[in-house]
Amino acid sequence: MRAQKPRREIVGFAIAIGGTILLTAAVAPGRSHLTPLSIGFGYLVIVAVAAALGGLWPGITASLLGFITFNFFFLPPYNTFVIGRPEYVVVLFVFLGLAILISALLARANDRAQAAEAREHELRTLQDLSAGLVALRPGPEAYSAVVTNLLATFGLTAGALFVNDPQTRELREDVAVGAPPGELSPRTDLSGEGPAVERLPLSVGGRSLGLLVLGMDREPFAAEESRVIRAFCDQFALVLERDRLLQEATRSQVYEQADEVRRSLLAAVSHDLRTPIAAIKTSVTDLLSDESPKSGEYAHEVLESIDRETDRLAALVANLLDMSRIERGMLKARIQGVDLLEVAPAAADRVRRQYPGLVVRVAIDPAGSIVRADPVFLERVIANLMDNAARVTHEAGGTLLELDGRRMGPDTVVRVIDHGKGVPWDIREQLFYPFFQMEARHPRLGTGLGLPICKGFLSLMGGEIWVEDTPGGGATFAFSIPTEASATVHAPASAGSAR
Amino acid sequence: MSAGRVLIVDDEEAIRRSLARALTVRNYQVQEAADGPDAVAAAIASEPDLIVLDLNLPTMDGLTVTREIRARSSVPILVLSVREDEADKVAALDLGADDYLTKPFGIDELLARVRALMRRASGKDAESIRVYRTDGIEIDMAQRAVRRDEEAVRLTKTEWELLDAMSAHPGKLLTHRWLLERVWGPGYADDVEVLRVFVSQLRKKIEPDPSRPTVIVTDPGIGYRWSLRPVDAAVEAR
User: In this prediction, does ipTM exceed 0.90?
Assistant: First the structure.
């Protein structure tokens, strides 16, 4: 913008001087055949061109040169400054007046055009910069791109964005471009050493949001550049504010969701913990009641149900603890060789005790029975899957539950096969999210936690879990777990199909 | 001889089992239902003497079940609720449930409620002459007379109506809303303060010790219960 001006002025002066000389040289030989007036117009053309291209001073120069040359060469008597006829004096001075007037007018028009052009350029620059601001998604990468763009536009090499941390109320360097982080300081360097920088505050409504620090390895900003940068900073501040508010909105949304989960957890906990407690309370007060039959058989029956409900309560509490530990990442698997031939039958026995009518078939292939697992986790996974399967089988009025384990490549795949209602396709993924309930209105911990816990445990042991259809109806929950490489060495000699 | 037929409605098998066992062993005939539609069907088809209804049911909630049953039958309904479901409990009582128990509860508490509700429903209380006596107080609803230590006590018209509404349902938990609508009219259903004032006036006249009421028992936040049994019925039951 500004760099062009001296060059244009030089061109103007060149035209003023060169044009005058050329015109004089060209016209001088035939000057006796021309009226002085027409020659004067020729000089006016030169004045106009010089002023139009070079501005006021080239115009004035051309005017004065023309005035002198016109007088000297073309007003008789020639080659003297003496003016022969009085009307030539008028012509001469009218020429000078017109020339200066033309210069002034053209120069002003020219300045205006240039200013308009500069304004337009500023606007375009600002537009380009702010288009980047609006188009980008919030975050340091976006800010970094914006700062890079700014540096390129103004021929800078280094810049940094500092953001006011709402918690600590201190400036934190968010983005550094072209300089290692920490090199551009947000605070004024009193020693005067270090690189020259420009510090531009970013604020909205009087509230400071941050600071843009630019390393100045060039001459200071011109007035119009400053204007553009200030306007840009205002927009940048607005964008920072928008992003901050957006972040806050997202955070409150997350809180709301967490709140939702907490509420449904609370409802589920209150129902699932209270149900066995209520059953136990009824049974215990039944035994304590004066009207209770004093037969040992009845007491035994009641005690058995108390025992069952206590187990249920204990299992729920264990699940709750497991889930919270998994979610907080507090668990570490102690991987070792574990024999499914020992774990599975124990789980099967427990299920048989709980559901006396149920037939539980266990078939473990000895070739893959020893797996790399945490024995406690593996036992909990199998117990949870068996409990689920036993419950749905029981609810569907079925009697058969199968547990199958076989080698598949580097893994052993264990399948818990039920013949219940099965699992619809669309919820198979969600089953493994905590607190997903098959019935939204009626949250139950039993189904809401068991599978996510299995998934959590298995992922700690390098295993996976999924659902399949049981041929002929029902669901099959399958999981894979790495097989112990030296399985054959540790396998018990008598290993076979366990019942 | 059967002590009565009870329908137990709860979606939790463990609860149904323990209740059914305790009631069966005490000579009640027990029928079970695991969800709302079954409960309504059983209530109509087998006409039990009493329904124990869990409010927290899948598919059809306990309030709907209460409404459905009440539309067809006046069988006593004892609702089971949990502590957070205060509003549901009151709504169920407003809809015509007779009493409630909060889980977990002792079996004796349940049996006491069951007996009280069945006694009332058997018709002896409702059809009797309705004379109540306690500690020097005599209330004769037929003659509209209250005597305290042989001296007549005067009651206002509203007090009589309140007394009548309460004593007609001995043992039943009467909600604020029910009493207000009954005595003052539907427009007064939420004027609990009015009810409170009149109950307190009434207590001064009919309670042996108005500072420790035993005739009109408060169930905080829910309503009142008339605890006296008519003289005739009480004698007969013994």
Answer: no
